[in-house]
């Protein structure tokens, strides 16, 4: 979802992925898996440098987009058609996508998210998808049952009970069009993008987690 949004939204759109902030495997921040499994538990927020992620998100939010990036966002390649008066009009909001599986576990990250999405999965589907992905280091036997699924359920329960304004989406469905339209509306881009895409009907906006969201 996040990658597809990044490809379809204007050029100035940015993305920050929580997976890029895992500590090195030998970092002392890691805690061991329960049950005697000889492996780090990578499904807890302490396995990631969240302070660095927050710093990077704030850096993007508080930066001033270049004039060219804002013009691209506004005109979608039609700069020559703008009058001088129109070029001085208020610009639409630049878009930052956040992609991660525990985005709502940190209050600062949560506060910076304007649109909040959480993609849910059944246990069987989650297991099936994990079998087709490569991890470094690889999952040891029992890691899914001991860490992955229990932490997903715990985080989902936390979000349902403590986080407001979250839109829950079934992870096997096709939700791109709905998400896309919400993102465009929030960023003030609906009319321009619809004009560019014509009758395009299959695209949307968000940030991902087992939950997912956006700024």
From TrEMBL:
SUPFAM superfamilies: P-loop containing nucleoside triphosphate hydrolases. InterPro entries: P-loop_NTPase (IPR027417). Gene3D superfamilies: P-loop containing nucleotide triphosphate hydrolases. This is Nicotinamide riboside kinase 1. It comes from Petrolisthes manimaculis.
């Amino acid at each position: 979802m996040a990658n597809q949004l990044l490809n379809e939204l204007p050029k100035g759109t940015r993305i920050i992925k929580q997976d890029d902030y895992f500590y090195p495997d030998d970092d002392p921040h890691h805690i061991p898996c329960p049950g005697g499994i000889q492996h780090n538990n990578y499904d807890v927020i302490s396995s990631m440098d969240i302070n660095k992620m927050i710093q990077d998100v704030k850096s993007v939010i508080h930066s001033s987009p270049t004039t060219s990036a804002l013009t691209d966002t506004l005109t979608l390649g039609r700069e020559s058609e703008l009058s001088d008066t129109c070029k001085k009009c208020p610009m639409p909001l630049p878009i930052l996508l956040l992609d991660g599986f525990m985005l709502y576990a940190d209050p600062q990250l949560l506060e910076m998210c304007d649109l909040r999405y959480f993609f849910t999965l059944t246990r069987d589907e989650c297991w099936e998808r994990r079998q087709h992905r490569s991890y470094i280091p690889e999952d040891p036997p029992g890691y899914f049952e001991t860490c992955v699924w229990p932490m997903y359920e715990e985080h989902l329960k936390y979000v349902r009970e403590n986080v407001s304004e979250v839109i829950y989406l079934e992870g096997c469905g096709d939700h791109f069009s709905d998400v896309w339209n919400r993102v465009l509306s929030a960023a003030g881009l609906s009319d321009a993008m619809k004009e560019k895409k014509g009758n395009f009907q299959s695209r949307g906006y968000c940030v991902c987690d087992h939950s997912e969201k956006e700024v």
